[in-house]
Write a structure and sequence with these properties.
By secondary structure, the chain is of the alpha/beta class. The chain has helices at about 1-80, 80-110, 125-150, 155-185, 190-205, 235-250, 265-275, 300-305, 310-315, 320-325, 340-345, 350, 405-410, 430-435, 435-445, 460-465, 490-495, 515-520, 530, and strands at about 225-230, 255-260, 285-290, 355-360, 365, 385, 425, 470, 475-480, 495-500. The strands form 2 sheets. It has a 7-stranded mixed beta sheet. A 3-stranded mixed beta sheet has the order 5-10-9. The radius of gyration is 47 Å and the shape is elongated. It is found in: Golgi apparatus membrane.
Amino acid sequence: MRVGEGHGCGCRDRWRLRQKDSASNASRSNLKGRTRSASNGRKRRCAALRLRHRQEYLQPRISIEASFKAANVDDTHRLHCPSLRLRKINSRLNTLRSALARNLTLLLAAHRPLLDPAARIDEDSVRGFERGVKGRIRSARFLIADAKDFFDNQLKIQKLKDTIFAVNEQLSKAKKAGAFSSLIAAKSIPKSLHCLAMRLMEERIAHPDRYVDPPTPPPELEDPKLYHYAIFSDNVLAASVVVNSAVHNAREPWKHVFHVVTDRMNLGAMQVMFRSKDYSGAHIEIVAYEDYKFLNSSYVPVLRQLESANLQRFYFENKLENATKDTTNMKFRNPKYLSMLNHLRFYLPEMYPKLHRILFLDDDIVVQRDLTALWKIDMDGKVNGAVETCFGSFHRYAQYMNFSHPLIKEKFDPKACGWAYGMNFFDLDAWRKEKCTEQYHYWQNLNENRTLWKLGTLPPGLITYYSTTKPLDKSWHVLGLGYNPSISMEEINNAAVVHFNGNMKPWLDIAMNQFRPLWTKYVDYDMEFVRQCNLAA
């Protein structure tokens, strides 16, 4: 019994030991499981955090690449022109750049307290702000890197240069063509004016006895006590408007004498025009410049130069490329600048030897008030009374003459103020004393090859009357109605004479509508010949 009992007790002890071992193993397993679970949780959290950072890092790149892929897909299917594809990509890049700038603005707005020195700084906010800024920087780098892949800067610059050069060439050609067309529109004779001259000439031929000159000229034509005007024109209608406006605004029209000089071709038309109505007692002389015997090539440099083959070729070539090769000075290629009607103004003392003073008027002016006050001006021994046109650096002598020529540079001041032709009051006694016509001949002969000035009558006038011009008040003569639409109506209404200098003459279709009525109010629309030619009112 003792032996058996002893054996049974030993078995129970071993069973209890196994139970304790299994319990301790279970607890150890539970502990290991909990440790493993905690470790796995930390690993999962770290992995998630890494994935989030990676996502933040890759998201801008992915969105940009997706945009470019979308653009490329669209371009592959829809656009076959590389330039259009680049424009589409450039548009997408601009959109992304705008979005990036907007996001940065929002980021700054969200963390504005951090930029305030007086505010408390929260470490978490600083870290969040730092992360946001770094993210935007990464996005900007991706944007720049991707933009570089699509654009070759040097190639782009060269293409832009080529485009600019091509556009400039087209612009230059368009300017030349436009200038030539403008010149044609300005210098061509409108059909209605041609019709009027033909109708008047037809009347002159049909009834020659009505327009015969008196056997002896009226004494008023040479009376120095009267007010004398010189008008040189081959435009019948324009010359009639000058005389109509001057007579209409004169207080004593019978004291005014108008010397109208034209060429032989238009003489008959001028005679019919001015002898078909009464001018309130004003005296009108109509002559052709060919009737002045002293105007010949041996005395007049312009007539002698006109015989030059070189000058004829310069003016009368009809090739378009020759007409437009010098766009800046194209207007000077007009043959009118060698017309004697333009240069007669330098021979007033010889044409009117018994007169002391005379008022020269262009045929594109309109008189708006009585001009007799000009004869009361003290000329101080000067020859030419004119309105100066200079302001700032404009209309100075340097703009009209070639100051690289030693003779011009020696004799004249490039900053001297220019003045205008159109309404000029001449003291003929002072003219004769200063020998202005001889001065004009001297300089005109020197300029035969056009090295001193471009052609025209203003540059030789500026030279001839360089130190003998008396400035007049600007209200006597307002210029620019043929090219400057910004002239104020107040200035025009206060002017004694308004001048339609420029290409937009009032008798042309290209005239400025706001100024044209100033001229048309003096057209004789009641005249039969004017009505027959349908002249626009």
